Amino acid sequence: MKQSIDISQLSRISREAGAAILDVYGTEFSVDVKEDKSPLTEADKRSNEVIVSALAARYPEIPVISEETREVPYRERKDWRRFWLVDPLDGTKEFIKRNGEFTVNIALVEDGAPVAGFVYQPVGDRLYWGIAGEGAWLSVEGRDPIALEGGDHYSGKGKVTVVASRSHLTPEVESFVSRLRDEGKEVEFLSAGSSLKICLVAEGAADVYPRLGPTMEWDTGAAHAVAVAAGRRVVSAETGDPLVYNKESLLNPFFIVE
């Protein structure tokens, strides 16, 4: 994987996109509403332009699916074996709230699975990345990267830290937590925004993330790659199978990061 993508370059692209976001973050920006009722800001657009332009220049042979670019019809992409999956500003609601819990997500998907992922949190300058078969790391404020090892599965623990969304808490998640308590486990509840929730499991700060609500493939691809490279699993809540990418519908099933 290192031979096929330039880790330092992808890190730089992630940080440049983050800088474009922060240029807007400190201003009195306006908020538009997309057709799906989700919010859109100038920061989403600027970050997308940085990422898509850079990927097209360096990897012209690899197509891109981005949240902020026209969705590619399934008939055109169904035979893609390799593509970039991008969310230029994951956590726009957190951006609007100015709580810092938003990220830049860039993933490389091969044969339906994320094999490389870069998740950058501009506020705090935190960069997570993971490469299939090679490992996952976290660099904070440009310091030397720390290898991530998610730790043991929560099923064998008496105390479990559950991470969930600050903006998307659902009754299903509350039921998940109740079941853990019924099993006699002590549950600590940790809230976070955007794909940071998956990364918290990857680094071992949380034990499990039940996402029992709707997400799109670009919301999860990059952090999914980080989590798996750190030794965790990202699986369907219904079947227990790993999430699959480039489906006809880009909507994810409910899933659990463990």
Give a verbal description of the structure.
The chain has seven helices and 14 strands. With 258 residues, the chain is of the alpha+beta class. The chain has two domains: 7-147, Fructose-1,6-Bisphosphatase, subunit A, domain 1 (Fructose-1,6-Bisphosphatase, Chain A, domain 1), CATH 3.30.540.10; 154-257, D-Maltodextrin-Binding Protein, domain 2 (3-Layer(aba) Sandwich), CATH 3.40.190.80. Helix 1 packs antiparallel against helix 2 and helix 6 packs parallel to helix 7.
At a glance:
With 258 residues, the chain is of the alpha+beta class.
Number of spatially distinct domains = 2
CATH fold name of the largest domain, please?
Fructose-1,6-Bisphosphatase, Chain A, domain 1
What order do the SSEs take from the amino end to the carboxyl end, as H and E?
Answer: HEEHEHEHEEEEEEHEHEHEE
Number of helices: 7
- The strands making up the biggest β-sheet line up spatially as 3-4-5-6-7-8-9
Top-tier CATH class of the largest domain: Alpha Beta
Essential attributes:
single chain; 258 residues; alpha+beta; Fructose-1,6-Bisphosphatase, Chain A, domain 1; D-Maltodextrin-Binding Protein, domain 2; seven-stranded mixed beta sheet; three-stranded antiparallel beta sheet; 14 strands; 30% helix
Fold topology:
Blueprint: H1 7-25, E1 31-33, E2 39-41, H2 42-58, E3 64-66, H3 74-77, E4 82-90, H4 92-97, E5 103-110, E6 113-121, E7 126-131, E8 135-140, E9 146-147, E10 159-165, H5 171-182, E11 186-192, H6 196-202, E12 209-211, H7 217-229, E13 234-236, E14 255-257
Parallel strand pairs: 3-4, 10-11
Antiparallel strand pairs: 1-2, 4-5, 5-6, 6-7, 7-8, 8-9, 12-14, 13-14
